[in-house]
Automatic annotation (TrEMBL):
Record carries keyword Transcription: yes
Protein name, entry field: Sigma-70 family RNA polymerase sigma factor
CDD domains, sorted: Sigma70_r4
One MF annotation (Gene Ontology) recorded for this entry: DNA binding
Upper taxonomic lineage: Bacteria, Pseudomonadati, Bacteroidota, Flavobacteriia, Flavobacteriales
Entry keyword set: DNA-binding, Sigma factor, Transcription, Transcription regulation
Annotated SUPFAM superfamilies: Sigma2 domain of RNA polymerase sigma factors (SSF88946), Sigma3 and sigma4 domains of RNA polymerase sigma factors (SSF88659)
Gene source species: Hyunsoonleella aquatilis
Keyword hit for Protein biosynthesis: no
RNA polymerase sigma factor 70 region 4 type domain boundaries: 112-162
Length: 180
């Protein structure tokens, strides 16, 4: 079945088409959920919530632009809505002006380790870091998505980078001590 036909069938609540759509896109969207969620179980919950929203709003898709991009936007917004509801961003108003550069020695820092330490960042930092660095959103877009100020977005990104840099430096120092 073509993607367009699948979408049209989903619009009339065809459960077979919905199952097929889930099969085609769930693994990619799960990766997105995992990137923004605290852990695997929360990512699974967020994926289910995202698909409920997708099936609820699929009639709004007008076959303009990438369908996969539309799915991803809904998925990201679903996860972010959970954090907005939890008031993750209400307390913090940090003003960290400096832009932290992270030098990564790829021979010492594996991609798995880097992804793990990003996952371990506090919610507000992880979300902004992923939106800005991994998905290329602007601070203006992030501020609108998370209902925070542009300054808060920038300071959360700077703080995330500081934490990541410190974590990597600590790990490198630990490895250097062990090799002595």
């Amino acid at each position: 079945m073509s993607l367009n036909q699948l979408i049209e069938n989903c619009k009339i609540n065809d459960t077979k088409a919905q199952g097929e759509l889930y099969k085609r896109f769930s693994s990619k969207l799960f990766s997105t959920c995992l990137k923004y969620s605290r852990n695997y179980v929360e990512a699974e919950d967020n994926l289910q919530d995202a698909f409920l929203t997708i099936f609820d709003k699929i009639e709004q898709y007008k076959h303009k632009g990438s369908f996969e991009g539309w799915l991803k936007r809904i998925t990201v917004n679903t996860v972010l809505q959970r954090y907005r509801n939890e008031k993750v961003f209400d307390i913090v108003n940090e003003n960290i002006a400096e832009d932290v550069e992270i030098d990564i020695d790829e021979e010492q820092v594996s991609l798995d380790y880097l992804l793990q330490i990003i996952q371990d960042l506090p919610d507000r930092y992880r979300l902004v870091f992923n939106l800005y660095v991994l998905d290329g959103y602007s601070h203006k877009d992030i501020a609108e998505m998370l209902k925070i100020t542009i300054g808060t977005s920038k300071s959360n990104l700077a703080r995330a980078r500081q934490i990541l840099k410190q974590t990597i430096e600590d790990q490198n120092a630990k490895q250097n001590l062990q090799s002595l």
